[in-house]
Amino acid sequence: MNCRNGLDEQYLINNDEQRLADEWRFKNSSDPLGVISGEGEASVQARDIRDFVAQVRVSQSGHVTGIEYRKKRDARISFTDRGKRIDVALVGDEAVVLAALQVASQKWGVVTVDGPTEFKLLCAELAAKHGFRLKNSEVQTRERTSNEALSKRDVNPYEAHKADILERIDVPNPSRLDWMIAIRLRVTGHSRQAIAESLKRNAPNGRKQEERDWSKYAERTAQAVFGPRGDREFRHCKLRASAWVRVEGRVPIPHITRKLDRGHGR
Known about the structure:
By secondary structure, the chain is of the alpha+beta class. Helix content is 44%, strand content 12%.
């Protein structure tokens, strides 16, 4: 079937071509999806979730192909229950991920999460807070332990975020970990120059085996964090600003976090 010959997503759904419909919907999107799945129940039914509206998708033959959930007064799809899995579109929105995990836990009890690393990390945080059961071996669901360093005013933001991430999820690639930390620093309002300086000062610690120019590495990473890829991840993660400001030992200030939501910090 060729999606270019005047066909659209609804046509594919009506003809029970859900996989092709999914491909059609996200054909122009570079934003990654989060996926929650489990074993057993594959049926789809609308569930009553506070602050969300459910819309049933039905094929022409009468089969329910999925349930789309949107926040009230928001036209964007938050997540979709497809039966065997739940696709999360707004992976950085804590309220959306919490709602998706609630649906998944009702369906399967124990769930597996996949997708962007920060999405899996957010799932781990919510699992620890709300008691969801995650099957992933690399995702930790234990309660956050107290960290005296976070209560001090001279917290090193890089080290604070590093500890917070590694407490919940295994990130074996040090450069990937640096990227995640740098995105968090942008979300919490640090400038590109400040992020570069933080990476230059902290990233080499314990990595003597890596032969690289750390100054150039730090500059390139900071520049990329404010580039197209960084912009996409910032959009997904900006709702985490308040939580990540607290990781740095600071108290979120409402008017400052509103500025962060609009993308300030360059």
